């Protein structure tokens, strides 16, 4: 037992002596572990303190320029099935001419300090009264400046006032698939709302929504009441006007569509300048070239647009274009399908002589066509 105690005492004495020497000559050896812990803490700080990504600045910039639009119109009241009963009319009077007011809801974007607001045509169509509620609480009466049903855009105007917030337009073609976007509007009338998502696709067409389609598709939540509101980028700049959703329930399902700012700006400028939108027209009915048609016409590809019909006395008729011709290009710009052809012709100024390249009986030829003015669609 005494031997064990002596061994223990000697071990402790040697350990203390060694610790004293290390502390005196190499103190950093004893604190290396603490230093490593400090480095790890610095490299990975507490996640609670790390700032998260935010689009608050973009929302703050754009939200004041987005307004709520309230409309109303007088419509014929549903006819009572007993209206023709003499007994009923004796007690309740003749109500065959009874009317009632129908309310509508949408959004809009202030585009300049003179009070011009860009919105959807279907928001203000047939409205008798339009009231605009600004983000700061002001409510002003508005009048329609002009509409363009074929792109579903419209411009209304409120009295010019001091310090009207104005949206900033994004640069043309600056938007990319995958970019973050914010949708701002008044869904279901609950009040100003901002939702976020990404650009899911660009150039969506053939949806049957408008005559002229070149939609931005986004998964940012768009609901009834958002129509006419702003779709902005992560810097708060306007990239589109929210227009439609794909939905089986009436609410957002992650597929929303917005009119790109390039088209919206062109329509806006024409309406402010002329009160209407003027487009080119040649008076043809076109058809998509399917693989079956391409084979029957002995075509190597399905690009182009088949002329299926000609309106008598139209610019195309006067120029000598015939049914069965295949339109290949307009002013040197390739026609890939019927929608492209429509857009290319619409972009031409009425009265201009333009060169059209066609294929007829396996031969290519060029024709000059004096472009006419596209008729406005009849109101339903």
What are its keywords?
3 domains, 6-stranded antiparallel barrel, single chain, Pdz3 Domain, 380 residues, extended, alpha+beta, Thrombin, subunit H, 33% strand
Instruction: Give the number of domains.
Output: 3
Helix content: 10-25%
**Count of beta strands:** 20
Query: Rg from C-alpha positions?
Result: 34 Å
Q: Give the topology string: H per helix, E per strand.
A: HHHEHEEHEEEEEEEEEHEEHEHEEHEEE
For the residues shown, what is the average pLDDT?
A: 84
Strand order of the largest sheet: 1-2-3-6-5-4
Percentage of β-strand residues: 25-35%
SS-based structural class? alpha+beta
CATH topology of the largest domain: Thrombin, subunit H
Low-confidence stretches: 36-44
Q: What is the 3D form?
A: extended
Just give the CATH class of the largest domain.
Answer: Mainly Beta
**Count of alpha/pi helices:** 9
Distance between the termini: 113 Å
Q: What is the level-2 CATH architecture name of the largest domain?
A: Beta Barrel
CATH homologous superfamily descriptor of the largest domain: Trypsin-like serine proteases
**Largest beta sheet, briefly?**
6 strands, antiparallel, barrel
């Amino acid at each position: 037992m005494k031997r064990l105690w002596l061994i223990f005492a000697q071990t402790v004495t040697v350990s203390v002596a060694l610790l004293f020497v290390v502390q005196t000559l190499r103190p950093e050896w004893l604190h290396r572990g603490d230093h490593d812990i400090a480095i790890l803490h610095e490299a990975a700080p507490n996640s609670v303190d790390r700032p998260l990504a935010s689009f608050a600045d973009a929302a703050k910039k754009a939200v004041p320029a987005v307004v709520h639009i309230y409309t109303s119109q007088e419509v014929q009241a549903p006819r009572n099935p007993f209206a023709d009963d003499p007994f009923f009319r004796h007690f309740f009077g003749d109500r065959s001419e009874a009317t009632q007011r129908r309310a509508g809801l949408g959004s809009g974007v202030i585009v300049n300090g003179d009070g011009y607001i860009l919105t959807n045509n279907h928001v203000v169509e047939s409205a008798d009264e339009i009231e605009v509620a600004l983000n700061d609480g002001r409510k002003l009466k508005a009048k329609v400046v002009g509409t363009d049903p074929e792109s579903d855009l419209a411009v209304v105007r409120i009295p010019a006032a001091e310090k009207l917030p104005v949206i900033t337009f994004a640069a043309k073609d600056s938007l990319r698939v995958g970019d973050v976007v914010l949708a701002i509007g008044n869904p279901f009338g609950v009040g100003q709302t901002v939702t976020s998502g990404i650009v899911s696709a660009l150039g969506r067409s053939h949806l049957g929504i408008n005559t002229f389609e070149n939609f931005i598709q986004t998964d940012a939540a768009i609901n009834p009441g958002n129509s006419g509101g702003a779709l902005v980028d992560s810097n708060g700049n306007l990239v589109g006007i929210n227009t439609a959703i794909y939905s089986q329930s009436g609410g957002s399902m992650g597929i929303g569509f917005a009119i790109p700012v390039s088209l919206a700006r062109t329509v806006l400028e024409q309406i402010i300048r002329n009160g209407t939108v003027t487009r080119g027209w040649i008076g043809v009915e076109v058809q998509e070239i399917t693989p079956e048609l391409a084979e029957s016409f002995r075509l190597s590809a399905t690009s182009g647009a088949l002329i299926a019909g000609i309106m008598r006395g139209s610019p195309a008729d006067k120029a000598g274009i015939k049914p069965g011709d295949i339109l290949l290009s307009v002013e040197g710009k390739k026609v890939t399908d019927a929608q492209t052809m429509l857009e290319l012709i619409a972009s031409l100024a009425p009265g201009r002589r333009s060169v059209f390249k066609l294929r007829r009986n396996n031969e290519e030829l060029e024709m000059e066509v004096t472009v006419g003015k596209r008729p406005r669609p009849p109101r339903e």
